[in-house]
Design goal:
By secondary structure, the chain is of the alpha+beta class. It contains three helices and six strands, in the order H-E-E-H-E-E-H-E-E. It is elongated.
Amino acid sequence: MKTLLIWILLLILKPSLQEGKKVAENECDFKQYRHLEIDHFPSDWIVKKVQPEYPKAAKDAKIEGIIQVKLLVDREGNVFKACVTQGHPLFREAAKEAALGYKFKKNFGFKMSRMPSGFLYIQTWALFNFKFDEPKS
């Protein structure tokens, strides 16, 4: 029964996944912004972290997964843009909303004298791990 439910979800979502892929490619293109790419940033740069809400449909189907979100952070530390680049479709919107709620240190944690000149944004990544916990009886 569980397998049947998963197959039905995949059949329903497959056409929208292909359409979403085209949109996501454009949405994830941050080339127009003057930004510095940082693959890994110190955890103390994060001022506020938001945990995503586990989507009901994913809970019902007992689906788990890791979602990768590409972030564009402005000098004030706000997430200016967020784009999901990998992960199960049922988690994408929740992960993106959570990422948009993140807050980083002003000037990306750099002291003004060490701030790379000319960059208005930093591009970095956030990972969200959706792990299903069975209710204990």
